[in-house]
Amino acid sequence: MIALLHPACNLRHKAGIIDVIQQAGLRARIEEHHEGERIGIPGASESLAEALEQLPGVRGILHQKASYGLVSRFASEAPNHPRVGAIHFGGPELVIISGPCAVESEEQILLAAQMARAAGVQMLRGGAFKPRTSPYSFQGLGPAGLELLAQAGESVGLPVVTEVVDPGDVELVARYADMLQIGARNMQNFSLLRAVGELGKPVLLKRGMMSTLKEFLLAAEYIVAGGNSEVVLCERGIRSFDSATRNIFDVTAIPLLKQETHLPVIADPSHACGIRSLVPHISRAAIAAGADGLIVEMHPAPEQALSDGAQSLTPSGLNELMRSLPAVAGAVGRRISP
Ligand code: PEP
Ligand code: MN
């Protein structure tokens, strides 16, 4: 339940409201909302709602029946921020993930890992199971790719994230990956969501290319309801009528999601725009909007990439992007790990 505060609610009114909430044995969470200040009261009863409604300073009561009660900001449990080793999603330090779209060979992924490490990112990405639109496109190296990715990550000291597309592969992928990615095409693959819900490893859940934010949060709810609260959301662009870019980066989704959920939200500027030259701009926009990190494609030789070369940064492009981020992060009270 949420108590909406009147614009004229003063400190004395607020103290009175909080007192009534605490006397009922509950916690009051004060929130800044675009429609004004409000107090979230997880676990509030009908009678408490009635009592609060009478108090000066209260404009109204919002009976929240969020269908995504576990991932909601107002969930009764304190939010548990996902961690990958020493990396902490949702804290003051942003998490930057980079690497190629797909693991292509031992040499390619090792080179990519070294370059990602040198650029100063915190995690390495690389797909071994690729969900491709065409059955004739490169589908990834499968289990061999997982092994190469894990080796490359280990050799440079970066944890790895990789996509799982089949519920039957969850255990296998979890053996090699520090974090499992659910791609846009599988955001509503409910058996896959249930399977990673049983996992003791963090999950990077990407927004479906035609999914509403409510559907996105409900997909995350599947994973958390299954017992895994280590979920990081990723805005990666949605379909539109305009073919000028691969997708439309929904920058609004970032602050909106952060208002609705306690889960960290990162952005994927690569799949959002599909054009290398736009990636740094969208990366900075995402951070300015409050994203907790980025996942950016980088390939040692993008012109030779077996997938998504056109949107992959070159290693020097990644370096340049990384150098531009601290100023933007600092402007919104965040940091890039040194
Ligand atoms: C990817 O990260 O390589 C990928 C396939 O992304 P998405 O699921 O967002 O299209
Ligand atoms: Mn890709």
Any overview of this molecule?
By secondary structure, the protein is of the alpha/beta class. The chain has helices spanning 11-23, 46-53, 106-119, 143-156, 170-176, 190-197, 213-225, 253-260, 269-273, 279-288, 315-331, and strands at residues 2-5, 29-33, 36-40, 58-62, 83-84, 87-88, 93-99, 123-125, 160-163, 179-182, 203-206, 231-235, 265-267, 293-297, 335-336. Strands 7, 8, 9, 10, 11, 12, 13, 14 and 15 form a 9-stranded parallel sheet that branches. Helix 3 links the parallel strand 7 and strand 8. It is elongated and about 70 Å long. It starts with a strand and ends with a strand. The mean pLDDT is 94. Phosphoenolpyruvate is lined by residues 101, 127, 131, 183-185, 206, 236, 268, 271.
Oligomer: single chain
How many beta-strand elements? 15
User: Mean of residue pLDDT?
Assistant: 94
Q: Roughly how much helix do the residues carry, as a percent range?
A: 25-40%
Low-confidence stretches: none
**Percentage of β-strand residues:** 15-25%
